[in-house]
């Protein structure tokens, strides 16, 4: 069988890792196409190296741009690539502009397309990711849902017959990487005099938090006021918008660091007092590592993290500080994101 994966942004490289490994084990031909949405080596190359993903076979080099220009440039190039390869399955991951472009290209060429991480919904129509998810789910032939909640969303939209619940592939990766990093402690953190449970890990990058100057300033101010040092792994989008809005990244307790490779992030989170973020992936990773999370958003797609008590949705200001500094939640052995073998079930679905 010939599988073709289209990826372009950091979280998609993480999701690709277990699929690439499972496809190789089963001796399937696997073509990897990188759109170039994320071109910074710290958001891209380091993930391929650290997670053992084969280098992309095709690189479209699309880069940044408005949503229309970026998505359009991907579509134009993907048509040629898909025509040439004629894969049995085109796999698209998550909710980025790369996901939507690849799903549209494949469906219009009548090539079977599978959406990995189907059915997630924030119900916030201001988010570009929400449109990417909904449009991709309705275009795709096979909807690989990470949870029952996601499958229920798809059923409510009339898509039950194309849906399979496979579990969450990011859980596959996280369990592997957690075993690999053991109890190592990142050098940057010790060089700053930080000790286990004596700091927070933060990331902020979403359009709704970075594009508005007032909101971005309020978020940075709150992060700087948390009672312990806050290690802010700064996404290029955050750095660029902070510069545009003259918002100070270096204030109060904030320690700014460039983005790090996945194993370094996992070991930083494992020893953190808490996580403060607007990332989808990081909320879930914090839950899986049983580190309390404060999410700077009004809604989440990963609702189980909230209902189980390990994640809180807050506005910047007082609410953020209270949430971050709250006592550790009650322990739970719930595992709504699967058993770490989601990629096996994805390949089973392709082979069925
Ligand atoms: C994208 C996804 C988002 C995902 C995130 C993970 C969409 C609509 N959004 O957001 O769902 O959570 O990736 O990181 O697809 N930039 C660089 N170097 C890079 C990449 C981006 O400097 O390698 C800067 C550019 O100024 C660019 C901005 O970041 O304009 C935004 O990049 P873009 O790829 O449009 O979206 P993200 O914010 O990264």
Automatic annotation (TrEMBL):
Residues 25-350 form the UDP-N-acetylglucosamine 2-epimerase domain. Gene3D superfamilies: Glycogen Phosphorylase B. It comes from the Bacteria. One of its GO terms (molecular function) is isomerase activity. InterPro entries: UDP_GlcNAc_Epimerase_2_dom, WecB-like. Keywords: Isomerase. PANTHER family: UDP-N-ACETYLGLUCOSAMINE 2-EPIMERASE. Belongs to the UDP-N-acetylglucosamine 2-epimerase family. NCBIfam families: wecB. This is UDP-N-acetylglucosamine 2-epimerase (Non-hydrolysing). It comes from Georgenia soli.
């Amino acid at each position: 069988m010939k599988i073709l994966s289209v990826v372009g942004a950091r979280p998609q490289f993480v999701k690709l890792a277990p699929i690439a490994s499972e496809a190789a084990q089963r001796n399937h031909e696997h073509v990897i196409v990188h759109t170039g949405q994320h071109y910074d080596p710290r958001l891209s190359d380091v993930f391929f190296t650290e997670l053992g993903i084969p280098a992309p076979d095709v690189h479209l080099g699309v880069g940044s741009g408005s949503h229309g220009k970026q998505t359009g440039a991907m579509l134009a190039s993907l048509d040629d690539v898909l025509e040439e390869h004629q894969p049995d399955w085109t796999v698209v991951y998550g909710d980025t502009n790369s996901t939507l472009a690849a799903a549209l290209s494949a469906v219009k060429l009548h090539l079977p397309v599978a959406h990995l991480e189907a059915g997630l919904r924030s119900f916030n129509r201001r988010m570009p990711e929400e449109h990417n998810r909904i449009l991709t789910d309705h275009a795709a032939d096979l909807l690989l849902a990470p949870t029952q909640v996601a499958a229920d969303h798809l059923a409510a939209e009339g898509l039950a017959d194309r849906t399979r619940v496979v579990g969450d592939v990011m859980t596959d990766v996280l369990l592997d990487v957690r075993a690999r990093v053991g109890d190592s402690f990142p050098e940057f953190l010790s060089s700053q005099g930080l000790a286990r449970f004596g700091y927070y890990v933060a990331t902020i990058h979403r359009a709704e938090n970075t594009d508005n100057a007032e909101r971005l300033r309020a978020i940075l101010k709150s992060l700087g006021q948390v009672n312990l040092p806050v290690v802010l792994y700064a996404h290029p989008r955050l750095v660029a918008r902070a510069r545009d809005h003259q918002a100070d990244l270096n204030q109060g307790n904030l320690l700014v660091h460039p983005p790090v490779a996945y194993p370094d992030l996992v070991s930083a989170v494992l020893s953190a007092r808490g996580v403060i973020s607007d990332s989808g992936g990081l909320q879930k990773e914090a839950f899986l590592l049983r580190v309390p999370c404060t999410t700077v958003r009004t809604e989440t797609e990963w609702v189980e993290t909230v209902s189980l008590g390990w994640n809180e949705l807050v506005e910047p200001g007082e609410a953020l500080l209270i949430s971050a500094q709250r006592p550790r939640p009650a322990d739970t052995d719930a595992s709504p994101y699967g058993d770490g073998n989601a990629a096996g079930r994805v390949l089973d679905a392709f082979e069925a």
